[in-house]
Design goal:
This protein is an alpha+beta fold and 234 residues long. The protein has two domains: 2-125; 132-233, Arc Repressor Mutant, subunit A, CATH 1.10.10. The protein contains seven helices and six strands; from the N terminus they run αααβββααααβββ. It has a four-stranded mixed sheet, covered by helices on one side. A two-stranded antiparallel sheet has the order 4-5. Strand 4 (214-217) and strand 5 form a beta hairpin.
């Protein structure tokens, strides 16, 4: 249990470090990109400066048509500068949005990886059960803080598995069927015991709980994947 807690703490610490460093890297990269982009954008007043230069260098443009042309150019320069300023705002908003999306994606990715690691640890170690109370009278089993109502047949199967676990035994399907039916294991079918295991898992309902609580050991049989000292039967 101590090793499991230590491993979980290490995983959380590693995930936190990855998230922090990843967030810093994303913000730094996008900040550098924004700086370079804004530096290389043309000056918003560049067009107005060129128009002003035309006014200064062409004092001889005095006719009405020529003056009208210069006014049009001046108006175009103002419109250009306003448009470019609005583009800067749009680019800034998009960069902020991209930063937020990348950070959120990184956090989500780290969370998924951490969850997958945790699920892998659970699959390897089995479910952590602090108490398993089997109540034959109520046809119920209390697993930690979860209550499962079972059929009489499922209760018989679970009770036999619990007794075998307390004796550190692994039961084959035929042996399980033999104990429940009161016959010799050699007279019983392996498939009958496997059917009882399937019905017990179905009765437990929660697939993860059922698969991790009732373990199938290849070429050996079935057993409860919990410590025997947490089992009580009433």
């Amino acid at each position: 249990m101590l090793l499991s807690s230590s491993s979980a703490s290490d995983s959380r610490a590693a995930a936190t470090r990855i998230t922090v460093f990843g967030t810093i890297a994303i913000v730094a990269i996008l900040a550098i990109t924004a700086i370079l982009l804004f530096i290389n954008l043309p000056d918003a007043n560049a067009f107005n400066a060129r128009v002003e230069r035309l006014f200064v260098e062409n004092d001889d443009l005095t006719s009405g048509a020529e003056i009208k042309l210069l006014e049009i150019l001046a108006g175009s320069g103002t419109a250009f500068s306003e448009t470019l300023a609005s583009y800067r705002v749009v680019i800034f908003v998009l960069l902020v949005f991209a930063t937020a999306m990348l950070v959120a994606s990184l956090v989500l990715l780290v969370a998924i990886v951490a969850l997958n690691r945790r699920m892998g640890e659970i699959e390897r170690q089995g479910i952590q059960v602090s108490s398993l109370l089997i109540s034959r009278e109520d046809n119920a089993v209390y697993l930690n803080d979860m209550e499962f109502k079972l059929t009489e047949a499922a209760m018989e199967t679970l009770a036999v598995l619990a007794e075998a676990r307390m004796d550190d035994e692994v039961l084959t399907g035929a042996e399980l069927e033999g104990v429940i039916s009161g016959r010799d294991a050699s007279e019983c079918d392996e498939a009958a015991g496997a059917t009882r295991i399937k019905r017990l898992r179905d009765a437990l309902g929660n697939q993860m709980v059922a698969e991790l609580l009732v373990k199938t050991i290849a070429r050996r049989g079935y057993r409860l994947s919990i410590e025997k000292d947490v089992i009580r039967m009433v």
